[in-house]
Specification:
globular, Penicillin amidase, zymogen, 26 strands, 9-stranded mixed beta sheet, hydrolase, Ntn_hydrolases_N, single chain, Penicillin_amidase_A-knob, 697 residues, 8-stranded antiparallel beta sheet, alpha+beta
């Protein structure tokens, strides 16, 4: 094998090799060198082994991964690839070979701090990493919340809280066709919103061989460029389609002398697969996990004795909860799309590759240099009863089986533009809850302000901070009778009603609004009408973000304030009391003083630092998500920004939080952070003469 590693001024790897297999090995090698600690954490998480060196805080995750059969599903999917697509299987093997070469003798300081050595990757490991990364991406725990809310607050409560919850991930993306650009060629831009990690969840990279030359954002630990790429003649990008493709079944299980049985929809008890696994926990005794799988799927909550801890749900008979998800059913994770994407030359090629996609379900935008455009959903969504999509369904009742797959919807452009921001777009028939339309409407409105756009113009859209979802709370403020307020509260009311509704880091008014919003959320959550929903059911800790009442109210506040009735709660009185509370002790600074970045790290940083203040908010185009009523810190935000120019690929732009390298002390560990914070973008370099050759490999 032969190849070479080049770097640009930002330390971004540009890889060149004789063919796809050699290039895959090179990608695995450079990923291990640049992101060795990161991908090893992901390998352990994908195998349910992270608590062995990260401690008991990861135990609930490890147990879920074991019970959901993530590693076993990855093995199944890889075995199917070997049978049906041996070229892709061999390509993945080459990537894993490179990873193992790069991890050998790896000197990342985190390994020493955690007391762990790099392990060995198997050919199926990248598939396990992908499955683990996206296990909660579709938000199936939201069904646990809907069941809980309906049982405690009534069926109507489900609609009141219908908004994207704290555990979901989204993105912005927009396509401007050539008829609306200064060059006559299309531009695609956007930013994926995910939990901000350090190192980042996306890796800027270039993959070049005689067959293709692609720049894009890769997922460390996974070969190719799945989500965002530019081949020179075609570019593509995705957002979360918010489709519902994972089902939860209530199961009735019983132990027998031969093992375990589950009650099926025909009234017959059938054998359920069962075995035990041991999860090691640093500093504590190992934990034995019972792994059970019925004909519906792996049991992820509870068992024959009921919910975890032996607590019967709602005082009824003991129940367990099984998860059914497409790759477990089909043995296909969609990795057959990865090589065709790299080889794509047109939107027709991207379209055919998207037909092979499985999970997660995405909305895809693509444009090519011949003027072609693509706007479609990609992924596998089962056809089944509507009840499956909304809540937990009883496994012992008929009518909840899967009956094939939905045809992925398609859409066109509107006046030369397509916008995707997790709203009810083309994927509407496939989902239940979507993001509020504010980001999509705002992007469309901004794009409508000009007849012609260029790639250089797009950063201004990335960083827009207008908060349309502030309207219901401000409407309540406007309806208050000013003479009934104290002087400070009246002044604060007038100030917020005059506010421009932009969540800028330097804005004291934005800080005051956020303080008021948080106070309203907490006061609503304390209302007796919500008391029955305040205590979550005894589900594992990993599901708690979906079940906590205060965040649920915080993210649904717009709907709760605008609803015709809210359980007879006197909302004007709640807003008035919150206004007086904040006026009596107003925030002392600006929004960015408390709205700071809170990236996830597997280990605390060796050098404690104050993270930067941020502009934006959950419903802004600049989506930096705080949790109203809980914290102003932002754990989620733009995990990358990109602009793909079809006229000249070298006029494309991109940036990631932190930097290209995952190695502390590297000059490229955090060198893109100032750009990311300012909303600036780095150039995509395509001229090999402008790159520095690092090594031949």
């Amino acid at each position: 094998m032969s190849g070479a590693i080049f770097r640009d001024a930002w330390g971004i790897p540009h890889l060149r090799a004789d063919g796809p297999r050699e290039l895959a090995r090179l990608q695995g090698l450079v990923t291990a060198r640049d992101r060795g600690w990161q991908i090893e954490v992901e390998r352990h998480r994908a195998q349910g082994a992270s608590a062995s060196f990260l401690g008991a805080g990861e135990l609930s995750w490890d147990v879920l991964v074991r019970r959901a059969r993530i590693a076993d599903t990855a093995r199944r999917c890889f075995a199917r690839l070997e049978e049906r697509d041996p070229e892709t299987a061999d390509w993945i093997r080459a990537y894993v070979t490179g990873v193992n070469e790069g991890l050998h003798g790896h000197g990342a300081p985190e390994f020493a701090r955690a007391g762990v050595l790099p392990g060995r990757w198997e050919p199926w490991t990248p598939l396990a990493v992908w499955l683990s990364t996206h296990l909660l991406f579709a938000g199936f725990p939201a069904k646990l919340w809907r069941d809980h809310a309906a049982a405690r607050l009534g069926a109507d409560a489900v609609g009141l809280f219908a908004t994207d919850g704290p555990g979901t991930s989204g993105s912005n993306g927009w396509l401007v066709a050539g008829e609306r650009t200064v060059t006559g060629q299309g531009v695609i831009a956007g930013d994926p919103h995910r939990f901000i990690e350090d190192p980042g969840v996306y890796q800027q990279i270039r993959l070049s061989c005689p067959e293709f030359d692609v720049v894009g954002l890769a997922v460390p630990g996974v070969p190719g460029i799945a989500h965002f790429g530019h081949t020179g003649t075609v570019a593509w990008a995705i957002t979360n389609a918010m489709a519902d493709y994972q089902d939860l079944y209530r199961e009735r299980l019983r132990r027998t002398g031969a093992g375990m049985e589950a009650l099926g929809p025909d009234g017959v008890w059938r054998r359920a697969a069962r075995h035990t696994e041991t999860v090691e926990v640093a500093g504590e005794d190992p934990v034995e996990v019972e792994v059970v799988e019925t004909e519906r799927g792996p049991v992820v909550i509870g068992g024959p004795e009921g919910l975890d801890g032996g607590v019967p749900e709602s005082g009824g008979p003991p129940l367990a909860v099984a998860l059914r998800y497409p790759p477990r059913v089909t043995g296909d994770l969609g990795f057959g799309a990865l090589l065709p994407l790299l080889r794509a030359r047109s939107v027709a090629d991207v379209d055919r590759a998207a037909d092979l996609w499985a999970e997660p379900v995405n909305v895809v935008l693509a444009a090519d240099t011949e003027g072609g455009t693509l706007h479609r959903v990609a992924g596998r969504v089962p056809v089944r009863a509507d009840a499956n999509r909304v809540r937990l369904v009883p496994a012992w009742e008929p009518g909840h089986e899967w009956r094939g797959w939905h045809e992925p919807p398609r859409a066109g452009l509107d006046d030369g533009v397509a916008v995707m921001a997790n709203q009810r777009g083309p994927a509407a028939p496939l989902g239940v809850e979507f993001a509020p339309p504010h980001r999509a409407r705002r992007i469309a409105a901004l794009l409508a302000r000009r007849d012609r756009w260029s790639a250089a113009d797009m950063a201004a859209i990335h960083t827009d901070t207008h908060l349309a979802s502030a309207a219901p709370l401000l409407d309540h403020l406007a309806a208050l009778n000013a003479p009934d307020l104290t002087g400070p509260a009246s002044a604060l009311r007038a100030r917020l009603l005059a506010w421009d509704r932009h969540m800028d880091a330097g804005s004291a008014d934005a800080a005051a609004f956020a303080a008021l919003r948080g106070a309203v959320v907490r006061r609503l959550a304390a209302e007796p009408a919500f008391a029955s929903a305040a205590t979550p059911p005894p589900y594992p800790d990993v599901f708690r973000p979906w079940l906590a009442l205060v965040p649920r109210i915080g993210f649904a506040l717009e709907h709760l304030l605008a609803a015709k009735d809210l359980f007879d709660i006197d909302r004007p009185a709640v807003v008035r009391a919150a206004l007086e509370e904040v006026a009596a002790a107003p925030p002392s600074g600006a929004w960015g003083d408390t709205h700071r970045l809170a990236p996830w790290r597997a280990l605390p940083p060796g050098d404690p630092r104050e993270e930067p203040g941020l502009s934006g908010d959950h419903d802004c185009v600049l989506c930096t998500s705080a949790v109203p009523g809980i914290t102003d810190l932002a754990a989620r935000g733009p995990a990358a920004r990109y602009v793909w120019d079809l006229a000249r690929r070298e006029d494309s732009r991109w940036v990631v939080p932190h930097g290209a390298s995952g190695r502390p002390g590297s000059p490229h560990h955090r060198d893109q952070q100032p750009l990311w914070l300012a909303g600036d973008l780095a150039p995509v370099v395509t001229d090999w003469a402008q790159l520095t050759k690092e090594t031949d490999v």
